[in-house]
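Retro notes - structure team

What went well: the batch runner handled both jobs without manual restarts.
What didn't: labels got mixed up in the shared folder, which is why I'm recording both outputs here explicitly, each with its sequence directly above its C-alpha cells.

Job 1
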Amino acid sequence: MFASPRYLVALALQGAHPRSEVARPWPPVPVPRAHEVVNATVYPSGLSSDSSLQHQAHFLDFRNPSSLALHPSLLRLFQLERETDALVNFQHYSIQLPPFYESSSQVLHVEALQQLTDLVRSHPSWSAAHLAVELGIRECFHHSHIISCANSRENEEGCTPLHLACRKGDGEILAELVQYCHAQMDVTDNNGETAFHYAVQGDNSQVLQLLGKNASAGLNRVNNQGQTPLHLACQMGKEEMVRVLLLCNARCNIVGPSGYPIHAAMKFSHKGCAEMIISMDSSQIHSKDPRYGASPLHWAKNAEMARMLLKRGCDVNGTSSSGNTALHVAVMRNRLDCVMALLTYGANANARGEHGNTPLHLAMSKDNVEMIKALIVFGAEVDTPNDLGETPAFIASKISKLVTRKTLLTLLKNVGADHRLPLTQGAPSEQCSTATHHSLFSQERSQPPPISLNNLELQDIMHISRARKPAFILSSMRDEKRTHDHLLCLDGGGVKGLVIIQLLIAIEKASGVATKDLFDWVAGTSTGGILALAILHSKSMAYMRSVYFRMKDEVFRGSRPYESGPLEEFLKREFGEHTKMTDVKKPKVMLTGTLSDRQPAELHLFRNYEAPECVREPRFSQNINLKPPTQPSEQLVWRAARSSGAAPTYFRPNGRFLDGGLLANNPTLDAMTEIHEYNQDMIRKGQEGKVKKLSIVVSLGTGRSPQVPVTCVDVFRPSNPWELAKTVFGAKELGKMVVDCCTDPDGRAVDRARAWCEMVGIQYFRLNPQLGTDIMLDEVSDTVLVNALWETEVYIYEHREQFQKLIQLLLSP
C-alpha cells in the first residue's frame, strides 16, 4: 500500500452504484453486484483494441485520463506505485482469476473477491486449486484448470490442495477433491507429511474419517521426524483423532523418534490417547522404545499416567536397556507422586539399576527428603552398596548440598544406616559384606560379636532360627511343637492401620515367618479387623501396605459421611464376594462390632470358629425380640469387615452394626476374655487336650497422637455473647474429649491388659509409635502418611531390643 499510488488493477463494471469500496483507501469507486460485471476485453496501458494480448482484468495508468474515462465504473483489486510491479501482478491475476469467475458467480461478491485477491497476493506460488481450497467455493472444483492442479505441490511447503483442505478441516471441499479431482492421499509435503498428518493437526475428526474411507499408504507413512499421523495425534493429545485413526487401522507398532505411539502419549501425558491404544492393542503396554529400551511406564511423568498402566498389568519392575526400572527413572526425575504410585503397586525399592545403584542411591543426590523417606518406608535398604561400593549414606555425605546433608545423614542414622567411606573398587570384601548387609535392628556395624544369649544381633537370631528350622517347617510343625498360644491384637484407626502394617512387616522380616504362622489368635477392630482378615487369608503385609495407599483414594472421596460403595467393593475384591468366615480355620480370628439395634449397645465378635457357649446369666432379660447374630458358617467375610469398620460420621451403619471401636477400639482385653471362655467351654465339653495356655500377647496400635492442652470444656447457659462463644467452644472440645475417651486404645486400656498378663504370667508387648501430628482416620495425603510410617521406622529401630526379645519368644517352640 502506498501513499500516492499511480497504477491500479481492476475489473470493469457496468453502471455505477454508490456503495462502499472493496477495501482499498482510494477515491470512491462504486462496488458491483454479481450480475453487473462486464466480461469485456480490457487493455493494458499503451495497447490498442486490436492487440493480441487480451485479459479479463484491467491495468489502468492514472497518468492517462483516457483509461479512466474508458470505464467509469470499476472494482479496484489493488494498487501499486511502480509500473513494473503492476505489470507482473497483472499477468499473474490474468491467469489465476478466470477459472474462478468462470465456474462460480460467488466469486464476484465483494467479500469473496476481496479474499481471493488477498490470497493471490499473499500466496503467489499457490496453484488455482490451492486458492480454491482456501476460498471454499465447491463449484470451482469442477473447472478443468483447477482439476488439473489437484495434486500440485508447487508452493513453499510442498503441500497439495488436499493437505490444505485437511488442515482447514473442510470436509465438503475434501470430498470434492477426492471424488471429482481424484486427489492422491499419499502425496507428501516437504516435511514428508501426508494429508493424514494435516488432518490430525486440524480440529475436525470428520475430515480424518473421510480420508480413512479409502485405503491409503499415507495413513501409516512417517514424516521427516519419523512420526506417523498416530504419533502426531498422541503427541498433541487429540483423543478423537487417535480413536478415528485406530478405527481406520492405523498401526500401533511403527517406531518413531520417541518409540511407538504409546510412548509419545506417555511422554506428553495424554492419558486418553494411551488408553485407546492399549484397548486396541494390549501388547503395546509392554513395548520397548528403540533408544532406551524403556517401557511406557518408564515414560510416565505423573501418578495418574503410571496408575493407568499399572492397573492394566504393566510390569512395575521391568527394566530398560541400562537396567533401570521405572522407579529409578521417577527418582532421577524427582517425581514424588510417580514414585509413590510405583511403590504402592509393588515396585522393588531395592532394584539394582545402572552402575548397581538402587533408587535410594539416586534419591540421595536429589536432596528430596520426602522421597528418601518414602523409599525407606517401602523397604529400601539403607546400607546396600553400588558397584563402586558406595552406600546411600555415603552418597548423601558426598553429594548432597550443605544445607540438607546433615538432615539426610540424621534421617539415615535414625534407622541405623552406616555412612562410612566406601572400599576401593574391586570385588566386595568380606568386611564390605558384613558392614553393608545387616538388619535395621543391628546395634553394631562392624564384625558381629560372638553369638551369645546375652549379646545376640537380631540378624543372627534370624540366621540361626532359619538354619535350625526352615520357615516352612516352622509353619507345618506349629501345632505339634508349640505348647502355648500366641495372641495378636490390632487396634482401630482408619487409614492409620498403615502403622500396624509397618510394624507387622518388621516382625515378618526379622522372623522370616509369615504373621499367620506366628500367632494362633488374631483380634482386630475396624481397620485392625480388615488386617486380621488379611492375615487369615495369607495376604502379605507388604501387599496390604500398597493396597491401603491405593484404597484411601478410592474410599475417602467427597465429604463425610462417605459413600459405602467403594469400601464395600474394595472388601469384596480383596476377600471375595461369597467367602464365609469359616472357610479358613487357622489362625482363629475375631473382629469386634457394635450391635446398635438395642440400648445399651452390645459388643459382638465376628468369628471364624464356633462361639463358646455362655453359661453365665444374661445381662438383660430377653423380653424383646431381637434378631440373633449370623452364624460364623453363614457370615460373609466382607460384611464382617464392613460391620467392624462402620465408623460413625465416616460411613453409614452396616445394617444394625456400628464400628467396633465404639466399645473395643483396643480389643486386647476382649480377646483375652474370649480365649478364656473358649478354653473353659472346651474343658466343659471334655476336650482338655485342645486347650493351650496363652503365653504371648502382642498388641499393635495405629500411632499415638501428641497430647495438646485444652483451654475450656465448660458448657453452661450463657448470659452474653462472649459467654455464648465460650460455651460453643467448650461444647466442641467436650464432645471431642468424650469421643476420644470412648475410643482411646491407649492409657488405662493398655495398663489393664499389661497388669492382667503379668498376673497370669503372660508376656505382653505393646507396640505403638508416638506420632508427631494428629492424623485423621480419613487422611489421604501421601506425604502425611509416609511421615507417619517414617516415625514408625524410627520407633522400630529405637526399640530394636524389644523387637529382638519378641522375635526370640515367637520363634521359641
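Job 2
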Amino acid sequence: MWYNLSANQTAVKLKTDLEKGLTEKEVEFRKKLHGSNELKKGRETNLLDIIIDQFRSSVVLLLVFAGVVSFLLGMRTDAMLIFFILTANTVIGVIQDYRARKAIEELRKLSAPKCIVIRDGVAREVDPKELVPGDVIIVSQGNIVPADARIVECDKLLVDESLLTGESKPRPKSSSKIEGEKQIFDQTNMLFMNTVVLKGKAKAVVVSTGNKTEVGKIANKMLEIKQERTPLQKQLDTLGKKLTIITTGVIILTFIIGYMIHTTDIVHLFMQSVSLGVAAIPEGLPAVVTLTLAFGTRRMLSRKVLVKRLPSVETLGSVDVICTDKTGTLTQNKMKVSSIFASGWIRVENDKIVPETTVLSEELIDKIAQCSFYCNESNRIGNKWIGSHVDVALKEFGEKNLRTKCKVVSIEPFDPERKMMSAECEANKKKVLYKKGAPEVIIKQCTKVYYKGRVAYLTDNVKKIYIEAYEKMSSKALYVLALAQDDVLIGLVGMEDPPREGVKEAINSCYNAGINVIMITGDNIRNAEAVADKVGLKYKSSVTGDYVRNITDEELEEVVEKTNIFARITPRDKLRILEALQRKGHIVAMTGDGVNDAPALKKADVGVAMGLRGTEVAKQASDIVLTDDNFVTIKEAIKQGRTIYNNIRKFVNYLLTCNIAEVLVVLITSLMGYLAITPIQILWINLITDGLPAVALGFDPPSADIMSKKPRKKNEPILNKQLRRVISAISIKKTLVLITLFLAFLRFGIKEARTMLLMGFVVYELVRIGVIKYLDKTSYWSNRILVAAVIISLGLQGLILYTPLSRLFSVVPLGLPHLGVLMIVAMFGYWSGILLTKLVTKDTAQA
C-alpha cells in the first residue's frame, strides 16, 4: 500500500525524482503504458439502441405481429392504425431520452481545471488527463485533486473528501508514513482524485491515474452492474404474454366455430378470426403507458426532478426502502454555528446571536464575533468566502454579529500539532491577540473568563463547567472550538452540518406511506445518530462498516431488516447492503451525490442523484436527478410514481373490460348465427375507447389517500387477483346487457340492431370511466383532459350517426326513444358497475 511507504520509498518504487519530477521522454513512455488519466465510460447509447428499446415489450411485439398479419390479409386500415400507435410510442420514448440527455449535459459541473506538475525540474500547467504515475504535482487551496497521489510534503493541508467518502468533516493531511492497513477515511498521507483542497499546500507524487484511482475503481464497479428491468416492464411483458395466449385462443376458437356453423370459405373465415383477435388486443396500451410516464416526467421536471429513464418513474412509486447518504443529502454539507457557551448557553438562529440571556452583553457579543471573524484563514472571492468549512462558518457568523471592526496585524495559521491558531488585531490603537482552537488547549492557556460583562478569574470550578459544556456539545456531534482574547476565555462555539429544510417532514411522510428510510454514510456513528435525531429518522440500532465487513451475506440480510443507520461505510459495503435489501424482496431507492454512491445508484431499483453538487459519475449512474439537490423532492416523486402506476392500472382495467366484452359479444352472437358487428365497427369502437379516453385516464391527478397506502409488493402484477375478478365480472355483465340490447332491437332490422349495439358499446365504455373514478375517490371533473376526451368521443359518435359517414359504418340515425334506451343502459351500467365491484372485491380502491 502506498500509504505504508515513506515519500522516498514511493519515489524509488515509481522511479521518479521528487525534486525534478519525470522527464518528458519518460512521460511519453508512461502514457503509452498507463493510458490517459480519464475515467472509462460505458458504451454510449445511440439512436438505434433507444428505438430498439421501445420494442422490448411483449405487448408491443404482439402489436407488430398483428399489424403485419392485418396488412398481409388486406386489412389496411387496421394495420395503419396499429403502426401509427407503434410509431407514436417510439417517438415519445426517443424524445424523452433526448431531453434527459440534454438536461444531464447542462448539469455537468465536475471537471478539473489545469494542474501544476514538475517535469524536467520545471513547474508547468498541464491538462489533468496528461498525468502519469510518477508525476510530481503541486496542489493548493481551491484545487481539485487530479489523480491519486502520495503526499511528499505539505503545509497545514485540509481536504474535503465528502464526495468520495461521505464524511462531512474536512480531513487534515500529513506526509508521515502510516503503519498497518487503513480504510480510505484514515489514509491521511494520500490525496484522491476529484477531492477538493480547502486549505494549505502540498507536493505529492502521482501513484494512480484513470480507472486505477479510487474514483476509477468505483466507476469500473458501476460499469459491471447490469441495468435491471423495472417491475412495470416485467409486468407489462407478463401481461403481453398472457394477451398473446388469449389472442391466439380467440383466433382459433372463432375459426373453429365459424367453420362448424357458417362457412367453408377458409380465407374469409381466417380474416374474420384475425380481425377479432386484433380487436382483443388493447392497441392503445403501450402508447398510453408511455404517454402517462412522459406526462409524469414533465410534471416532475417542474418540481425539480429530472427523469432519465421513463419506467423508473413508476418504480419509484413502488419503493418501500430509501437508502440515503447523510452529507449533502439529509444535511446541507455546510457548517453553521448552532450553539455557544459563554458562562451560560447562548441561542443562535440563522447565524445571529439571540440576545435573550442574562450572561450576554454588547461587549461579549462583540468579542465572540471579532474572534470568529478575524482569527480566521478563509478569504473572500467575489461574494463568497473560500476556506475550510469551519472557517467559513465562523466567518459568516462573525460577519453577521460584528459591532466593532479591527485591523489584522498578523496571523499565526492553524497548527495541527498545537491544535490552535491566533491573530493579532488592532482596534482603537489597542492591540489584542485572538485565539481559537481545541477547547482542552485554549482553556488550559487561559487564567480569566468573560462573565456578565466583566472579566473574572477562571477558577477550577468554572473550568469544570466549561469542560462539561464542551462534553455536552460533543455528545450532540457538534464540532467545538474555544475562543479567547489574550489569556481571557471568551467561550465555546459549537458548529454542525445542519439538516436541509423540510427533510424531517419528508421523512415523516415516507413513514406514513409505509417506506423505510435507511442512512448509509461514511461519517462516524455519533455524527450519523445526531443527524438522525434531528431529521426524525427512526432507528433501533446502528452498525459500522467494520461490523458489516466481518459478517456473511446471509447475516447481513438479517441485519438490514432491523438497522437504520450504517456508519463508516465504504462503497463496497454500500453495495452489499443494497443487494441484501433486494434479496429480501425490497424495492430500493438510493439517493446520493458522491463518487462513492455511483455503484449503488446504478444497482438500486431507482438511483436518485443530486444535480447541483453531484459528481458526473453519480449522475450518469442514476435513473433520476434532483436538480435542486433537495431530499424533500423525493416525497413528491414517490407520490407521482404511485399516481402513475394507479393510472396505469385504471386504464388496463378500462381497456380490458372493453375488449373482452367485444370478443364475448361477437363469439356468442356468432354461435347464435348472427354477425352482430362488422370489422370496421370493431375498429371504430377500439378507436373511440382505446384512443382519447384511455390516454386521458393517464392524466388523472393523485387520489387523496395515495400517500397513506403501503407500497405494493415487488411481484404484485398489474392484473392482481382483485382486478382480475373485477374485469371478469364487469365484462360478463356488460356482455349480457349488450347482447340483450342487440336481440331486443333485432326485430327492427339488423342495421338498427347493429347501430344500437355499437352505441351501447361506446356509451357503456365511457360510463365505465365514471365507475373507475368513483371507486378511486377522484372527481370526474378533476381531469379536464378526460372530460374533453369523453365529449370528443361522443361528438365523433354523433358524426357517424347523423352524417353521410353512416353509410361507411353501416349504421342508421337514432331517434329520441333509442337515445332514451341508451340513457337507461348507461345509468344501469354505472350503478351496477359500482355495486358489482364492491361485491367482488373488498379493496375498492384497487378496482
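One thing worth noting from job 2: Residues 106-112 have pLDDT under 50 and may be disordered.
We'll revisit the folder naming next retro.
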